[in-house]
Design brief:
Helix 2 packs parallel to helix 4, helix 4 crosses helix 5 and helix 5 crosses helix 7. The chain has one domain. Helices cover 77% and strands 0% of the residues. The two termini are 16 Å apart. The protein has 167 residues and is mainly alpha-helical.
């Protein structure tokens, strides 16, 4: 089960703050925080999906802790082809990954949707994570826009998780 209560609540709370009268600086800070919260949730959720599947499928005599330490916790990012696919390929193998992606893609093009959503977020996230708010502020997604991204990404990650559970 993919946790979504806390991220939904955070994004809704940030949207209320963003929509309340206030300074442009505060509005920008709420946008930046919503973007970073959503992206943090994505990374945590992908880790959880991978680790739960590893725990379900790896045998008792395998060294599950090394997989967690060596691959999952050292992967920071959420570009599908590089980070997410890399983690899944190490866990389930290329052949099983291809099968899983085919099933998920046939379910309303969810892999394509996920890639597009993540690609849109990554540049904004990198700006938010590596800059501070100063006189010329970068553009961030509003909290309500982050809620839209969340809904679409959640559906895609849920499809991947469900397919892994069924395998």
């Amino acid at each position: 089960m993919i946790a979504k209560f806390y991220i939904e609540k955070s994004l809704k709370d940030l949207d209320k703050l963003y929509s309340a009268p206030g300074s442009q600086r505060k509005s920008t800070m709420y946008c930046k925080m919503a973007t970073l919260e959503l992206c943090g949730w994505i990374e945590d959720t992908v880790d959880d999906i991978v680790l739960r599947h590893a725990k379900r499928k790896l045998k008792q005599n395998t060294n599950y802790r090394n997989y967690k330490r060596d691959f999952v916790k050292k992967t920071s990012g959420f570009v599908y082809d590089y980070h997410i696919r890399g983690l899944l390929m190490r866990l389930i193998g290329l052949i099983e990954l291809e099968k899983m992606e085919k099933v998920v893609e046939n379910d309303s093009a969810k892999i394509t949707v996920l890639k597009a959503q993540l690609d849109n977020l990554v540049a904004v996230r990198n700006t938010a994570a590596h800059t501070h708010i100063k006189s010329v502020t970068p553009l961030y997604f509003s909290p309500s826009a982050c809620e839209g991204y969340f809904t679409r990404i959640y559906d895609c990650l849920k499809a991947i998780d469900n397919e892994l559970r069924g395998s």
